[in-house]
Amino acid sequence: MKKRRLLVLLLALMMIVTFAACGSNGDAGDNGDNGDAGDNGDNGDNGAVETNVVEDAAMAYFAEMPDDVYKIAQDAFVEKVKAGEDMVVLDIRQPDVYGEGHIKGAVNVPWGADIAANLSKIPSGKTVYVYCYTGQTAGQAVATLNVAGFDAKSVNLGWNLGISKVEGVADVTVTEAATLDGNTTIDPDIQAAMDEYYNGLADVAGTTYANYKISEDDAKAALDAKDESVVFLSIRKAEDFAKGHIETATNIPFGKGMQESFNTLPMDKTIVVYCYTGQTAGQATAILRLLGYDAVSLNGGMGMEANAPSGWANKGFPVVTE
């Protein structure tokens, strides 16, 4: 009897040891045979890690910036039109001025919600040239179009200060309307971001930040009031910043790689971005807003280039060198 009881105890002990060993090997085996830890090895859990398509595209805008900084000189643009180059041209001015005269082949997609609504109609595989009045809102549009996957460039100084001043432009100025015929697939997350960006213009219309811009007078008032909710960002070249800039402004020169300094900017303040005439500030403002910053561009920029009637300097506002 005692032998039998001893045998039973031995068998029970062996089962406990065996079970413990199997359980231990099972956990370790999960690592070895792509179980729990193996999910990491076979992209199980890692494969489910969310990627922010909009943020990645926005950061890539500067990381992959071409030498032409997404712009084309007005005379070079007119020459392309005259040569009949196969391209897409968007006139984002209002319909009434578009109807008075526009570049041959240009399609009117007025600045605002219409841009987001017509993304899928823009043909892919062609360079998209965008112009507005002076280039500032075209800069924003070009940035968003590139984020959406298009190869877009703005025409320097827009229609009023650039295109209309080019000799021979009358030969390619028409009143007949053109239409878009594309059928481009836009990533759903990108489309949602574009809808939010352009529909958001309605929320700022009539305010200090209409069109995600701020006037020189309103910017000066914020500076004079020492409004701590507003900061100034110069994206002019370092040497030009040193020669004179808006008081309290910091400097992140516009160009490839500037996104690496965005983490120095506050997320909880309005960032007034300014350049020379407002065009590259428009680009930077759009990208910053897509990244979650409350950015607006200064109307006319510093206003120190030829043909620029607006801007901080042209208003006679002071600059500092410290």
Automatic annotation (TrEMBL):
Keywords: Signal. The keyword Ubl conjugation does not apply. It holds the Pfam family Rhodanese. It comes from the Bacteria. Residues 1-20 form the signal peptide. Residues 83-171, 226-321 form the Rhodanese domain. PANTHER family: FAD-DEPENDENT OXIDOREDUCTASE (PTHR43031), OXIDOREDUCTASE (PTHR43031:SF16). This is Rhodanese-like domain-containing protein. It comes from Alkalibacter rhizosphaerae.
